[in-house]
Amino acid sequence: AQEASHKDKFAASMNISLPKSTNNYAFKSSFNGIVDMDAALHYRLNKSFELSAACRYSHFQLNSVILKENITGKMDNYTPMLSVSWNKYFSDYIFLRASISGGYNFEVTKTSLMNAAYFQEAFFFKPSLGLYMFSTENLAFGIIFSYDTWFSEFSKQNISPTIIPGMNVNSYKGNNQTFCVGFGFYSLIKKAE
User: What is the pTM of this model?
Assistant: First the structure.
């Protein structure tokens, strides 16, 4: 594999991570992160800088262990995003990728006790860092770390009428945030000769 050529103006990527809630005690306690994934198309300004359009999806399942009743539930997030990225090449094969992404999050929460899903919308922010290695001239695989924040608070309304034991008013304070670790691929889109 060779260091990415400036001639290749476009690239595509996909990341799959495991999200761990880090803020808002009620959210951390009542939902387990299952998957956080995104797919993006990148426009390469030069070898180092890119602008991207992406879509993110994340899924959380209700932690039924902390609830006294037999209740099922889930939270899904859908986020269109724009990103700016910087790539630092250490060799022809290995590069570090740092990105800042912003978008608008659409959240849907539903439990088996609810008549209808609960909807929330909020701005979304995500810094990420990945270490990649090319396996072919065009395709690289990497390990990804990111910290996702969507500026909405998990509240009692998210899963009403379900009651989460041991929570008080302060338990519901703070934006939803997750630390994500996963893997991804990055592929240069070659121009047809």
Answer: 0.89
**pLDDT at residue 163 greater than cutoff 80:** no
Determine the 3-state secondary structure of 68 from DSSP: coil
Using alpha carbons, select from 119, 156, 122 the residue that is nearest to residue 26.
156
Cα separation of 153 and 107, whole Å? 11
What does the pLDDT look like over 73-106, one tens digit per residue? 999 999 999 999 999 999 989 999 999 999 999 9
Q: Which segments of the chain are extended strands (E)? A: 10-21, 31-44, 49-62, 73-89, 94-111, 118-134, 139-153, 175-189
Q: Return d(Cα 187, Cα 182) in angstroms, integer.
A: 17
Token pair of 64 as six digits: 């039924």
- The answer to whether residue 182 scores a pLDDT higher than 90 is yes
Between CA 67 and CA 62 the distance in angstroms is: 9
Query: Is residue 31 within 8 Å of residue 63, measured between CB atoms?
Result: yes
Q: Are strands 73-89 and 139-153 parallel, antiparallel or unpaired?
A: unpaired
**Residue 59: how many other CB atoms lie within 10 Å:** 16
Q: Which residues, 6 or more positions from 104, have their beta carbon under 8 angstroms from its beta carbon?
A: 79, 80, 121, 122, 123, 124
